[in-house]
Amino acid sequence: MPDHILKINRFYALTHWSHEEKARRQAALGLDTGKDRLEQTEIEFYEKFIALGQVICYIQRPGSLPSNDFVWLSNENLEFEQKTTKARYESIHGQIVKASSRAAKQGVVKENFIIDICDVPLTNQLRESLGGFNIGREKYLLNELWVMSQGHISRVVLRTE
Asked: What is the DSSP string of 62-98?
């Protein structure tokens, strides 16, 4: 694969930014990220999210301990974990469980997620499948789940039965 292509998954390939471009775009976010270097997918998510008028406070990474990514100030000041992945239930489920289980091992709770599926539409089938995430679960229950798709954010109504 050429150096200028960043492979996100088998459906998407984005132009890989230079270190200078990443630093410039991260600084342009206006978030206090301290010494944290955001990944390209994180920067792209924050650009879209802030452009939608959402107000957040970035949570700086506390060394080697896990943490959520940001406090969503315009949504009840809840802490959220953000993931960019394929628009498939299995991929989204896997990302949520992996992040939640790793955090739980160190006493950190991740219960609010926003998933960026890029320019893929959020289908009714995927929304319905995601809505059933908590059904039958005893561990890693979600409080809130949102999806960013095609530059829009949508709340997923989580069912328990």
From this structure: -TTS---SEEETTTTTEEEEEEE--S-HHHHHHHHHH
pTM for the complete prediction? 0.89
The answer to whether residue 123 is domain-embedded is yes
Is 54 among the domain residues? yes
Which amino acid, 155?
R
**Selection from 63, 112, 54 nearest residue 83 by Cα:** 112
Domain-embedded: residue 147: yes
**Inside any domain, residue 32:** no
CA angle 135, 138, 143 (to 5 degrees): 65
pLDDT of the residue at 157: 97
Per residue in 103-155, pLDDT tens? Answer: 999 999 999 999 999 999 999 999 999 999 999 999 999 999 999 999 999 99
